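ARCHIVE RECORD
Type: protein–small molecule complex
Small molecule: Z5A
Source of inputs: curated submission
Record status: active
Notes field left blank by submitter.
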Amino acid sequence: MASRGQFITFEGTEGVGKSTQLANASTTLESLGVDFIVTREPGGTPMAEAIRELLLTPRDEPVNDLTELLLMFAARAQHLHTRILPALEKGQWVLCDRFTDATFAYQGGGRGVSVDRIAQLETLVQGEVRPDHVILLDAPVETGMRRARQRGELDRFEQEAVSFFQRIRDTYLDRARATPDRYSVVDAGAPLEQVSARVSELMCKFHSDLL
Ligand code: Z5A
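STRUCTURE (tokenized, with ligand):
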């Protein structure tokens, strides 16, 4: 029977380069002969992608914080149980663009939902499942916002103020300090070649640690 795959998530404030580094990490894993899937949250299955659409679309109706939180976890339940866990059980690695750290950062740090409430839903939906490694791409908020804004139209989250993203960055960094074994904090404000080299190095390390 194949050993369980590694579950690796990519986190950070908007525009820090998660998509770019997921592609870079994929190239490295291919060169190592690792079988893997790439996915994202919210989303990753047709139903969870439909929930993503609900969450990201700017709307006139104010969105209640609890509604937003429950939709994040509804999408996660579908994604985790129908896509992520089956892949891990087959021995595939899972590279995921955001996971529950984003909920602690955005809904917790950003919106002010209590950590206890998020932790209760984390246990309900995930049981003991947590990422094996979290790559936290960290850069000044303005750097990521500038990069993201060059892309054009802003989604419902991207329309928030700098202070919202600053609280998110602070929450991510606090979480990384609290469990340093699980987090790799990468300076995402550095030139692209440097960030990519560091992320590739981490992929090689996670692979060699299992040999
Ligand atoms: N959300 C939430 O609230 N709660 C949750 O639990 C979850 C999510 C799971 C969607 O996420 C929203 O959902 C998100 C949080 C919320 N909202 N926000 N903000 P998303 O991940 O799809 O959206 P995003 O954070 O806005 O990601 P993004 O804008 O797609 O950015 P990215 O993937 O981190 O960056 P990128 O596309 O790789 O790079 C952006 C540009 O910068 C691009 O032109 C690159 O070529 C360039 N780039 C990348 N790296 C560099 C370096 N090092 N130097 C120079 N230029 C660079």
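CURATOR ANNOTATION: The mean pLDDT is 96.
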